[in-house]
Amino acid sequence: MTNNGNGRKGPQLTLWEKLYFPEIIHGMSITFKALFRPKFTRQYPEERWVPPPVFRGRPVLVVEDETNVERCVACGLCARVCPSLAIQVQAAETELDKERYPELFEINMLRCIFCGFCEEVCPEEAIIMSKDYEMTFSNSKDAVFGKDKLLTPASQLKDRLEFLKQYR
Amino acid sequence: MIVLVPLIKVIVVVLIVLGIVSYLVLAERKISAYMQDRIGPNRVGPKGLFQPFADIIKLVLKEMIVPENANGFIHALAPIISITVAVGALAVIPFGNYIVIGGQRISLMVANVNIGVLYILAMSSLGVYGITLSGWSSNSKYSLLGGLRSSAQMISYELSLGLSLVGVLMIDGTLQLDKITMAQSAGLWNIVYQPLGFLIFVTAAFAETNRLPFDLPEAEPELVGGYHTEYSGMRWGLFFLSEYTNMIVSSALMVALYFGGWSLPFINYAAMAPNLAALVQVVTFFAKVGVLIFIFMWVRWTLPRFRYDQLMNVGWKIMLPLAILNLLGTGAVLLAVK
Lengths: 168, 338
Fold this sequence. Notes:
The complex is a heterodimer of chains A (168) and B (338). Chain A is α+β, with helices and mostly antiparallel strands and 168 residues long. Chain A has helices at 15-18, 21-34, 77-81, 117-121, 147-150, 158-167, and strands spanning 59-63, 87-93, 100-108, 127-129, 144-145, 151-153. The N and C termini of chain A lie far apart (61 Å). Chain B is an all-alpha fold. Chain B has one domain. Chain B is 68% helix and 2% strand. Chain B has helices at 4-35, 51-61, 72-88, 116-137, 141-172, 177-186, 190-193, 195-208, 220-223, 233-258, 274-300, 308-337, and strands at residues 98-101, 104-107. Chain B has a two-stranded antiparallel ribbon.
């Protein structure tokens, strides 16, 4: 008997449901209870979200705490694997044991898609995904992060390094 | 003096009601937020209490765009009709009994018209013009559809609205809202005698004020914004204001007709000093109105919108027969009692 507008028969409603008002009151009781439920809102700039270690934020270069030298040996695998061609590495020689280091390491954050391939491919665990999700820039030049922004001491990246040890 | 007193009353009522309206917008946003597990506006001022001022400043500063090939004059006139009619209906609402200033009794309604209820019905019917004209003059298909829908909806629901009121008028034998209130303060509230009439009245009032579940003239998923699609700035603001003013008017009407107006059971106003009594009455009245407005918002954030054919079916096939039945029943009982 009910026509739901597209020519097909709608569900058969009981008399109680057809009376409208009992069902409306039922619905209203649900919304009234919702008034007192805990709220999900986070007051963003004051109250920030700290992501769990699985989170793939901005890629960074790990710097050893003891020696203050970056782990990267400038093999260029990350630049090779990067699907969006965001990474640029230029290698140079060094007196240290690792013999090579990146003279220039740039990630274009406008291109980066946070896939984490660079982290996955890196043999030295030198480039990893951080927890940083707040990146703002007002022009495309500022969006290219050089070594000054990428180098991060390993002590600040403990969570992610632990996570990688466990799950990779 | 004869001119001055009503003028002051008009100014006071308009200022108070428009002040309340701006805060109703905030209240609605807060209530909707809480019902959806959010917090709502809380940035402007403590707990977001200055949000209405920010909204109004924004609306006043925005450009009022008139679409190409629109009828400019009617486009500008329509929101003015809407707000005038909405505020005008407040004239016959009894906010309290009377106050005494300098030995003179001043009744707390702007105009004591002897056909108060009829006046309100007439004003709310005129409200259709604002919406229909705005839809027609905007030169936009969405506006036109919204205007068409509103005229059809308001005309069909006006019938049941009027008929459901007649029950109350038969019981109290008057069209003056203050006398209806008086009669209720002496005996029981009219909701006891007219529960069915009240339900019909509430439903029709929702349709008259274009609130969900009957907000088909706006229906944002289908019609962008309905009749006010092509409005911006303060002209749009006037439509907004008139929607909320209409909500106050219909809540106030419900309070006066069904919930005893400013009267409270167990309180004897005659024993109090007249001005104190007036204060208590006004507070009581607005508290009752506040509860009803909360119900308006509560329903809005609970129910989905009716489809257009469902709206017409409910209006003509259910509400109208029920209203007539209510009328017949009331008449029969009144005859039997007297």
